[in-house]
Design goal:
Distance between the termini: 44 Å
Number of helices: 15
Helix content: 40-55%
Structural class: mainly alpha
Bound molecules: iron/sulfur cluster
Radius of gyration: 23 Å
């Protein structure tokens, strides 16, 4: 095995907002990538549980955010994220990032934030919460995200296409900071496109999500999974078993592709097209495959639910480690900004 000097490892930062449990869309979209990354000696992965960011649009529901911090940590550990390889930490327990956000807020204009395409889309989706006037905190979340990334010298940030404007905004802040306060104080992050297609919902919606009611959660019981799969959208043209079907427009076939062995998946499609497969049996087979695939995750989840002290220990130690890194960055930042009073 190749030995890589720890100092030369690239820090790689990913994160989630603690607003709900993880579903299979997250599993195929980001968890699998993280599991691969933690096995690569070239990287030092950090996972941020972004509770401060979650509060920007859940400020009126702190219980939800608090509860989901631990839920998220349990999901990570159940999926195989190994705290010896990946540092999991809580955003609000790193006050340095809040401090850095304040310094960065001088380097970004309100007009620039309003033009950020990701923010624009999200504000439009949150009309119900914000009405006609968005909060300062929500508009400014790309600034605090830039602080999260740079506080950890996050060099590589795995993102989906829709997140690219946020990384660009972070790079702009870094360039501006370095041009005013000193060359190369901060590192510019690079994005790595995760390349994973977004997993569609059971109803065929492009997005899987809690608010859409179309998700299968990693923590769902076998009964819940079966119930959800039985309600999935199929080829509407099929009424009887011998009607010729089209698996290309059926969500059951779509999930078979993810959860069923390749040869069996081919058989599903062939039999469907030939009118030799009943939708009920097809759904039952899929439900069983999903239940079997998620079984080890569910088992581990049971263990961590019964041992909350182990989950807390992972979070406390991860946050402690992350904070050490953040403190080092703040020292550099304060020195560059001439805020290092009373230091020799
Ligand atoms: Fe979908 Fe299976 Fe029914 Fe074909 S047989 S339409 S793949 S559920």
């Amino acid at each position: 095995k190749r030995v890589v000097n720890k100092m030369s490892k690239k820090r790689i930062l990913t994160g989630d907002r603690p607003t709900g449990r993880l579903h299979i869309g997250h599993y195929f979209g980001s968890i699998k990538t993280r599991l691969k990354l933690q096995e690569n000696d070239e990287y030092e992965p950090f996972i941020l549980i972004a509770d401060v960011q979650a509060l920007t649009d859940n400020f009126n529901n702190p219980e939800k955010v608090r509860k989901n911090v631990r839920e998220l940590a349990i999901d990570y550990l159940s999926c195989g994220i190994d705290p010896n390889k990946t540092t999991i930490y809580i955003q609000s327990m790193i006050p340095e990032t809040a401090e850095l956000t304040v310094f960065y807020s001088n380097l970004v204009t309100i007009a620039r934030l309003q033009r950020n395409p990701t923010v624009k889309t999200e504000i439009a989706q949150k009309k119900e919460l914000f009405g006609e006037s968005v909060t300062y905190g929500f508009l400014g979340y790309p600034v605090s995200q830039a602080a999260d990334i740079t506080c950890f010298d996050g060099e590589l940030i795995p993102v989906g296409e829709d997140q690219l404007p946020l990384i660009e905004q972070c790079r702009e802040i870094v360039r501006k900071f370095n041009s005013i306060y000193g060359k190369d104080v901060l590192k510019e992050p690079k994005e790595v496109l995760s390349g994973q297609a977004r997993i569609k919902g059971l109803d065929g919606n492009e997005k899987m999500g809690k608010s859409l009611g179309n998700a299968i959660y990693l923590s769902d019981s076998p009964e819940e999974i079966t119930k959800k799969v039985m309600g999935a959208v199929t080829d509407p043209g099929r009424i009887k078993k011998d009607d010729l079907g089209n698996p290309d427009i059926c969500m059951v076939a779509y999930y078979h592709k993810l959860f069923t062995k390749e040869d069996d998946y081919k058989k599903v499609c062939e039999e469907c097209r030939a009118g030799k497969r009943g939708c009920v049996a097809c759904k039952k087979e899929l439900a069983k495959n999903i239940i079997d695939t998620l079984e080890p995750i569910r088992e581990k989840r049971k263990y961590y639910e019964a041992h909350p002290e182990e989950v807390d220990k992972v979070l406390i130690e991860g946050t402690k480690k992350a904070r050490e890194v953040a403190k080092e960055t703040m020292k550099k930042v304060k020195k560059a900004m001439m805020l290092n009073y009373f230091e020799n």
